[in-house]
Design goal:
alpha/beta; 8 helices; 5-stranded antiparallel β-sheet; rod-shaped; HIT family, subunit A; about 325 residues; Rossmann fold; single chain
């Protein structure tokens, strides 16, 4: 016995407890707290032993007594702990015999960690899965996804609502990429700037995604807005903000399908487009055509500047 061990006091009869069973070498009693389930019992040796690892003989005897009690129960956890890190709070060997019932809601000490690990594993598997299926990217398209380096050359940014990972709806961007590929007749690949991430790899910080999208829209030869507005699955709230930023750039085109679930939510965007002479289209092929017209105009302007610069340099 030790001077300040409550379990030694109970085993020696010097402290009160609701005793469930007694043996020469051990005693079983109900926790003073009432226990974590009905019928919860603590079994301790009469001899003071600090924990399960101190004396295998004593531990074996206590486990045998716990087994006698457990044999009377249909379902039970038999648990002992060693050390503070293992949640031991009374340093006298004790074994919890905890009856279990369906739906009792009692988590074991490691259950939250198991659940957290399962959530992490599921999230990692989800992140590793393709966000959408493109198949093979067309040969005349150079696909640049979120947070990837921005190359020079003719490019179109695909602006519009992005499916949330929690909402199982397909992205519209694969169709847009294929449509741009079918119409592009330039002498070099067209860069398509896509704000969706490869393999659902999220940005470390939200600001990193926002900064990349802003830089990509600024760098794009044309900004193709396609807004199949659906307030339940594709609300496009940030798309509204982006449209307000880009409507006066001279590089934006607006595609709003009239048969989308919530076409009324696109009325203001269409009004602004008319006000600033931005092309408005009702189909994705027509929107791609309008975006490529702007792209080719920007290429022609750049080539004209280059020729003018060369001529002026020759004169000097």
């Amino acid at each position: 016995m030790t001077a300040e061990c409550i379990f030694c006091e109970i085993a020696g009869g010097r402290a009160s407890a609701r005793v469930i069973a007694e043996w020469d070498d051990a005693i079983a009693f109900a926790p003073r707290s009432g226990g974590v389930t009905a019928g919860h019992v603590i079994v301790v040796p009469r001899r003071h032993v600090a924990d399960v690892g101190v004396d295998p003989t004593v531990t074996g005897a206590v486990m045998a007594r716990a087994a006698e009690l457990a044999a009377r129960m249909d379902a039970v956890n038999v648990i002992t702990s060693k050390g503070v890190s293992a949640t031991q709070t009374v340093f006298h060997l004790h074994v919890h015999v905890v009856p279990r019932r369906p739906g009792d809601g009692l988590p074991l000490p490691w259950t939250p960690q198991h659940e957290a690990a399962a959530r992490t594993a599921a999230a990692e598997a989800d992140m590793a899965a393709p966000h959408w299926t493109l198949g093979e990217v067309p040969a005349n398209i150079r696909l640049v996804c979120a947070r990837e380096p921005l190359p020079a050359g003719p490019s179109v940014f695909l602006a519009g609502p992005t499916p949330d990972q929690a909402v199982p709806v397909p992205s519209w961007r694969p169709d847009a990429i294929n449509e741009l590929s079918a119409q592009w007749d330039g002498d070099r690949p067209l860069t398509v700037l896509c704000p969706e991430s490869r393999g659902r790899r999220r940005a470390e910080r939200y600001e990193h995604q926002v900064d990349w999208e802003s830089a990509a829209r600024d760098a794009a030869g044309a900004i193709l807005f396609w807004i199949p507005r659906d307030m339940k699955t594709l609300p496009g709230m940030t798309t509204n903000v982006e449209w307000g930023l880009d409507v006066r750039t001279g590089r934006a085109v607006l595609g709003c399908p009239p048969d989308c679930p919530n076409p009324e939510r696109n009325r203001y965007l269409i009004h602004l487009a008319h006000r600033y002479a931005v092309p408005v289209c009702a189909t994705l092929p027509d929107t791609a055509t309008a975006a490529l017209m702007i792209t080719k105009e920007k290429i022609a302007e750049a080539e004209a500047k280059l020729r003018t610069g060369s001529t002026e340099k020759g004169r000097t």
